[in-house]
Amino acid sequence: MSRYTIGLDFGTNSCRALIVDITKGEELASAVFSYPSGEAGIIVDSSDPNLARQNPADYLLGIERSILDALETAQQKDANFAKEKVIGIGVDTTGSSPMPVDAAGSPLCFQERFKNNPAAMVWLWKDHTGFEEARLITGQAAQLRPHYLAKIGGTYSSEWFWSKIWHALKIAPDVFSAAHSFMEICDWIPAVLVGQTKPEAIKRSICAAGHKAMFNQQWGGLPDEGFLKTLAPELATLRRNLYDQAYPAEHKAGNLSGAWAQKLGLSTDVAVAVGAFDAHMGAVGAGVQPGTLVKILGTSTCDVMVWPNTEKLMDIPGVCGIVDGSVMQGFFGIEAGQSAVGDIFLWFVNNLLPDSYGQTVDEKFKNLEQLISKLKPAESGLLALDWNNGNRTILVDVRLCGLILGQTLHTKAHEIYRALVE
């Protein structure tokens, strides 16, 4: 008898649900829900290009819409499919994407006084407003706790947990003081599904903790209070309301709550897994194993490898962390990547492509694909540098800029697009 699991993927612009028949290893149905808030789901600020936030209410709506749509599609495709046969839900999200929450684990932006305050929302992975804080964290750790940096490639990033919440303290002290804790959305969404969101009660992801928050059992978990106090005393105090344990995605966060079971038409016997980041779970889905590098393409790109945790592994300068269990239990997960990939393509089509290539975004991409498929690699002589959103690996500097070299008066738009793809 077939059994099914649901995968929920919360990306930069949309949420996706996928139903898999785990007895056959086959994908049965999927659905996509685009976030309604902001610009393509992102809260932006025209005066600050580094700001990128999200409304967590979009995630709650996305859970319901995407799962119900996927379930309906599954029933249409397979007469033998039944909701009662769904036994598990797994969640992955962008990251580091933390948000301030109250003592019950509810987002601060759900409160009337903070509902329009971007600082009270989710600080999306691509929010780079904390670049100065990242620089200061790197400098302090290099002097006081160099072992913290050794496991994250040597440089702390503005895309990561501590730089974001420290920046929140500086620019929105009212939000910071009202926050009981901060939670990654990959931790919050499973907690919502199981009906237990109190920050002290949930199971946090080792993927998020290790790669983005300098969590490592070698030094007792998160950075110690003494170190955090050298950055800001408030961070040391906040640490007490964070966590001491973190878990791989193989662990169970709990069972689907009665409220969500009723809303989705599923059973409370459905197991909900501990959350993780999208790229790391993408690597699992692609069959990552020692000796294989998996490149996950999306708005940005992550390069992921694994190595048995029973074997020695040297620290690697420039990577985004070496974390035991972040991809699969029993393996070190190694992450690197590019800060902009799909983002660059969308920027090009929305801002630089003539209307002669098509009237809609989808038409333009389709026509570009047909044209560039006729070109050989590097045929146009163009060379593109992909730092349009800064550099993730190995320089870890969000202030860097992209570049296109080799244009002439004969250069065509699709040739530039091909260079960007290459």
How would you sum up this structure, described in words?
By secondary structure, the protein is an alpha+beta fold. It has 3 domains: 274 residues, 2-Layer Sandwich (Nucleotidyltransferase, domain 5); 52 residues, no CATH class; 80 residues, no CATH class. Helices cover 32% and strands 21% of the residues. The protein has 14 helices and 18 strands. The strands form 5 sheets. Strands 1, 2, 3, 6, 10, 11 and 12 form a 7-stranded mixed sheet that branches. Strands 13-14-16-15 form a 4-stranded antiparallel sheet. A 3-stranded antiparallel sheet has the order 4-5-8, with no helix packed on it. A hairpin with a 2-residue loop joins β4 and β5. α8 runs antiparallel to α9. The mean pLDDT is 96.
Descriptors:
422 residues, alpha+beta, Nucleotidyltransferase, domain 5, seven-stranded mixed sheet, four-stranded antiparallel sheet, 32% helix
Task: Tell how many strands the DSSP assignment holds.
Answer: 18
CATH class placement of the largest domain: Alpha Beta
Major sheet: 7 strands, mixed
- Name of the CATH homologous superfamily of the largest domain: ATPase, nucleotide binding domain
Backbone shape: globular
Summarize the SSE layout with pairings.
Layout: E1 4-10, E2 14-21, E3 26-34, E4 43-45, E5 48-54, H1 56-77, E6 86-93, E7 98-101, E8 122-123, H2 131-144, H3 146-150, H4 161-171, H5 173-178, E9 181-184, H6 185-194, H7 206-212, H8 225-231, H9 233-239, E10 252-255, H10 258-264, E11 271-273, E12 276-277, H11 278-285, E13 294-297, E14 301-308, E15 322-324, E16 331-338, H12 342-351, H13 361-372, E17 383-385, E18 403-405, H14 413-421
Parallel strand pairs: 1-6, 6-11, 6-12
Antiparallel strand pairs: 1-2, 2-3, 4-5, 5-8, 7-9, 10-11, 13-14, 14-16, 15-16, 17-18
Helix pairs in contact: 2-4, 8-9
